[in-house]
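worker-03 picked up job from queue 'complexes'. Input manifest follows; two sequence lines, order preserved.
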Amino acid sequence: AQSVTQPDIHITVSEGASLELRCNYSYGATPYLFWYVQSPGQGLQLLLKYFSGDTLVQGIKGFEAEFKRSQSSFNLRKPSVHWSDAAEYFCAVGAYGNQFYFGTGTSLTVIP
Amino acid sequence: DTEVTQTPKHLVMGMTNKKSLKCEQHMGHRAMYWYKQKAKKPPELMFVYSYEKLSINESVPSRFSPECPNSSLLNLHLHALQPEDSALYLCASSPGDPRSVSSDTQYFGPGTRLTVL
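worker-03 finished. Artifact:
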């Protein structure tokens, strides 16, 4: 069965520090993987996606993610976090019929 | 332009009211989606429209009635809702055909915050 796990419910980092948000998936075929960000009361904004090819994917706002098939992971990284990055982050796998399976989300707090 | 718009932004309704949520996209996308999202939870899929036809209904109560009048517009008609239906309702669209075996990017609107009294 398809599923996505985000092990960290909440992460706090200092502004300027590096960030890594973890995502593990379970999917029988080639996964289509996505990271979305959601600010309070807002919709989901696409940060980046992986369909095939280079396993290191660059996204918007300075984010990147690395697909590791052997570890079934698609972790999101940013070298230097800004206060405006505080938000909820969702990892998702796109399955047959374009149905998305979302992780439970990771809430990011950025302290000055 | 990858914009999905939703109106209204906020809606307060009583349990006997009838209201509608509206979603528009002008990207030529063939698939449109309704999601319900409770606070601190991921979005839950409600309905999928493919080429203006309802293709997925995730066992949603009949008090929610979707409608797709044309390829750019998606409505969600609400009637006799319960307080537990209060949530953020998100619309999304994607270019590809959901009936295919592959997946595609979904683009989300800003949502409608619904409160049922």
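worker-03 released lock.
The mean pLDDT of chain B is 92.
The interface with chain A takes residues 4, 6, 31, 40-43, 45, 48, 55-56, 88, 90, 92, 94, 96, 98-111, 113 of chain B (CB under 8 Å).
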